[in-house]
Amino acid sequence: MGRPFDATVKNEKELKALQLEGLKWTVNHAYNGSDTYRKKFDEAGVKPKDIKTLDDIRKLPFTTSKDLQEGYPFPLLSVPMEKVIRIHASSGTTGKRKVLCYTAKDVDDWANMFARCYSYADCTVEDRVQIAVGYGVWTAGWGFQNGCERFGAMSIPIGPGNTDMQCQFLEDFGTTVMTCTASMGLLMSEEIEKRNLRGKIALKKMIFGSERSSDAMRKRISELSGVAYDQLFDIPGMTELYGPGTGLDCRYHTGIHYWADYYILELLNPETLEPVSEGEVGEMVVTTLRKEAAPLIRYRTRDLTRLMPGECPCGSVMPRHDRILGRSDDMFIFRAVNIYPSHIDQILSNIKEVGSEYQIILYRKEKSGKDHMTIKVERAQGLTPSHDLDKHIRKTIEHEVKKQILVSCDVEVEDYGSLPRSERKTKRVFDNRE
Ligand code: ZN
Fold first, then answer.
1. How confident is the model at residue 274 (pLDDT cuts 50, 70, 90)?
2. Which of 208, 291, 393, 397 could form a disulfide with 182 if both were Cys (CB 3.0 to 4.6 A apart)?
3. Angstrom distance (rounded) from CA 354 to CA 390
């Protein structure tokens, strides 16, 4: 029994055949439709006819966010302007905004992909979906909205914020699915608890976009809202690749199924740009298979993840990747080891005696010329400082870092609340070498 909007391919062999067909189409389309791509291909000495197998993707040059910036306002455009029916833009925290063009078919494909997300979250046309993400030039609201309409459930396009109205709609309209960021999901769950709404509402699922949710956060949301833990879903997505809705973790939560009939995902070592071995963390590099207005060819997303092995109990042919584990831009090299702050983050989050804030300080000792690393952490909130406690924290972290990352470090333990906080991205790595 198939899920509505699922891929038409029945097995890996059929998927690969579809991917090869899409790859050949994309390469031809981009080469003939875009000066930027043609120039890149010519410089790399590769022609569309050189793509005969899926492995030939490795002959193709990479595309980066720099290409998007240089092509502003309509980068990578591969169709005549009159074919474009919509643009979207990212919020753009660094440099210029990323602007992407869409043809009617691109918008249609995106709606189908997103409808598949609702399908994988076991929604039905009976569902009532309260869409509490931003509507505007960015992709979130439009993605959830068009996907919901394509799927055939009832949409309630409320947008973010406005807690009173959110709660009223939950009660009056019998909302069964709420879509929002995980932070807003937590806020809404607190309101549901506070206003004693649990017996009065029909909410049974939440789908989170744009921000990853930790296990602890999901547990808390489930406890407060009464929504079952396995009915909380994560939707990944980036503006460059249509927007949100390019995959979803199904109810078994064995990783995020990604729509491999719409794009190829390569995982590469960000230093060597060679494929990582199976199960290893690498940078997500995507190539679209049907995108018309602004196709992506080996686009370096800078996001890090790994592929999940084996099959999912749900029986889907769609492969899975892990949650986003960090950004390759954040990587630093220490004593010839590639280290990601997210890895240190992960180690610290498993040690209950420390808080969530930390700093990594790198320096070189003049005498020996050797590199050293100090990790500054805070004692968890409410713990009484003592010599033994601090010693225990230091030893535990030093041991875990040595065991998991294979390097030595020193640890400094500080009072809770003493490290700087910021609402935006907090700077964590201070490289004082040189
Ligand atoms: Zn599954």
1. very high
2. 208
3. 10
Count of other CB atoms within 10 angstroms of residue 2:
10
Dihedral of CA 181/186/191/192: which sign?
A: positive
Helix (H) or strand (E) holding 115: helix 104-120
Q: Report the separation in Å between the CA atom of 197 and the middle of ligand 1, taken as the mean of its atom positions.
A: 31
| Gap from CA of 123 to ligand 1 centroid (Å) | 14
Distance in Å, CA 256 to ligand 1 centroid: 8
Instruction: Tell me the pTM.
Output: 0.84
Domains by residue range for the chain, with CATH? 1-328 (3.40.50.12780), 332-431 (3.30.300.30)
- In this predicted structure, the answer to whether residue 105 has a pLDDT above a threshold of 80 is yes
In DSSP notation, 388-431 reads HHHHHHHHHHHHHHHHHH----EEEEE-TT-S---SSPPP-EEE
Spacing, Cα 340 to ligand 1 middle (Å)? 28
In the reported structure, the alpha carbon of residue 310 is separated from the centroid of ligand 1 by a whole-number distance in angstroms of 11
- 318: CA distance to ligand 1 center in Å? 8
C-alpha 251 – ligand 1 centre gap (Å):
7
CA distances from 431 to 231, 271, 372, 405 (A): 42, 19, 10, 18
Contact yes or no for 260/319 (Cβ under 8 A): yes
Residue with tokens 């870092």: 401
Interval between CA 205 and ligand 1 midpoint (Å): 17
Rounded to the nearest angstrom, the distance between the alpha carbon of 206 and the centre of ligand 1 is 17
Query: Are 176 and 127 within 8 A, CB to CB?
Result: yes
DSSP labels for 358-371? EEEEEEE-TTT--E
Interatomic CA distance for residues 198 and 209, integer angstroms: 23
* pLDDT per position as a tens digit, 21-70: 999 999 999 999 999 999 999 999 999 999 999 999 999 999 999 999 99
The tokens 């808080």 sit on which residue? 355
What is the Å distance from ligand 1's center to 116 Cα? 12
Please tell me the predicted confidence (pLDDT) of residue 337. 83
What residues flank ion ligand 1 with Cβ within 5 A? 250, 252, 312, 314, 316
Residue length, the chain? 434
- Indicate if the alpha-carbon torsion angle 27, 28, 29, 34 is positive or negative: positive
With both helix axes pointing from N to C terminus, report the angle between 387-405 and 341-349 in degrees, rounded to the nearest 10.
130
What distance in angstroms lies between residue 9's CA and the mean position of ligand 1's atoms? 16
